[in-house]
Amino acid sequence: MEKPYLIPIESSLGHPESLIFIDGSLSERIDERIDERIDERIDERIDERIYNPEDNRRWWQVIRQAGWQGAIYGLWWDRSNFSPSLEHLAQLETNAISYWHKHKHYVRRVGKSYLPKLISEHSLTRVSLMGFSVGARIAYYTMRDWSEAQICLNNVLLLGGTIRRDIVRNWGTAASRLEGKLINIYNCEDLVLTRFCQILEWDRSPCGIKPISEEHEKIVNFDATALMKTAKYSPTNYLLVLQELIQQGYWT
What we know:
By secondary structure, the protein is of the alpha/beta class. It has 9 helices and 7 strands; from the N terminus they run ββαααβααβαβαβαβα. It has a 7-stranded mixed β-sheet. α6 (135-144) links the parallel β4 (126-132) and β5 (152-159). α5 packs across α6 (135-144). It starts with a strand and ends in a 5-residue tail after the last helix.
């Protein structure tokens, strides 16, 4: 697999903190555009075929509309052999669970080992993380194992997180490494994530559907169900949520 790297998206508008967006979108169907792009550009680098910052341009717009004034980076991580679509997982049938376990170990390594080094290499001194779906797992492991003493890890936002929400994850210990807050944004009507759990036979709800069960002064559970226009994933659906977080003083 190719090594992860950070992509500068937008410069700061005056705020000294950088936000790193970590995508990992679940989808209902296999992305046919990626298959077509691979066929057309088979000789090019994997990262150029699979991930283009412009694919997430709506996220950058929403983050700015919500009020974020700092620099924005995107984390590229290799998903060329990992298709987190419900259609693909369903096709694997009984092999879906082993498929997930195989790739989640890579996800953990990205968060635990690669991302902290990338932050240091880019000379970022104050950062927040925003992890979406499977990307929330990367953000979690970065937070949990954070040891960069000279760099401030401020807030971590989890959106639709595919992580167990119970005390086994030692959420309080992980959150205590932050200067700011661990903000878990969940949607009780997230049908994609619900189906994802059914396919993998999860017997516990992830933090993207219900609140983190452990109470801690740095953990904020934000029920976004009423603010989401639909149960489907869309950056636009998170705009009101992010604006509300800023208005309530949880995220700046």
